[in-house]
Amino acid sequence: MSELISGKAISAKINDKLKNEVEQLKLKGIEPSLAVILVGEDPASQVYVRNKKRTCEEIGIRSIGHDLPASTSQKDLETLVKTLNNDTSVHGILCQFPLPKGLNENEIILTISPEKDVDGLHPINAGLIAMGNPKFISCTPYGVLQMLKHSGIDTTGKNTVVLGRSNLVGRPIATLLSSKGWDATVTVCHSRTSNLSEVTSQADILIAAIGIPEFVNADMVKPGAVVIDVGINRKDDPSNPKGSKLVGDVAFEEVESKASYITPVPGGVGPMTIAMLMANTVNAARWQRGLDGLSL
Ligand SMILES: NC(=O)c1ccc[n+]([C@@H]2O[C@H](COP(=O)([O-])OP(=O)(O)OC[C@H]3O[C@@H](n4cnc5c(N)ncnc54)[C@H](OP(=O)(O)O)[C@@H]3O)[C@@H](O)[C@H]2O)c1
Q: Whole-model pTM?
């Protein structure tokens, strides 16, 4: 049986630390603030935004909601972002994706000031990661790193396979883990990778971020591997009153008995992602006031 890496427990610890930090900052007259933009009425996005605002409240971060109709124009959205860029009482800006059809997400990412880019998606922040000098790290990759660190997993020299190469998850995780300090030997796999099982079954650390329910089975995993499941997928489940349940990219039940460590879904990477958004917001406030970033 493997040991469970609980994102719920680790994120609670990080959130506690952030709460103390926010109290200290408030004594210095700094109130970390996050602007949260939601365009349209996508139900999943509404849930994500609600959870992010609730966590802000728990930690003491001021969240300022901007709920806009799906008919909002690109120009109006960019104007709002520019206003928030110039508002010194706002430290971080989050625009919830996906945006409704017709709006260009890349242009919004480029419009957000890199200094307030708490989602870590701006090319300047992605570039700093690539140069081995990260500032804002996108929240899910940051969460994965913290899970490894808090679980005492040494990545040095470890054969690490990242399944998925998206700008949001796979690529930054691979870049970060291969950088100095983490020192893993990283292979990135994607939909065109040949002999995928052969590659994944060599991995000491296997990170799945592909968005296919329960894709990684026990045959794809090396005995004793550390398995991090980033996937969040909805799967039909007639036994569930909702008719469906959340599963990851890993077939948890069969892989659990083969891995040394494994993350659950839900309760794994998901809560870490929100905690790291909070950490980025607190750091944004610190950096904008000339203070050092926090070590978590
Ligand atoms: N826990 C969280 O907070 C959190 C946050 C973000 C995302 N997620 C979840 O993480 C998963 C991935 O998200 P994403 O945004 O990275 O997805 P994405 O943008 O769709 O990227 C998926 C990646 O997986 C690769 N892929 C697809 N099918 C594959 C296959 N059969 N074999 C190998 N690689 C394959 C794709 O390859 P190509 O590049 O060749 O197309 C792509 O690089 C999703 O389930 C998402 O819901 C969770």
A: 0.97
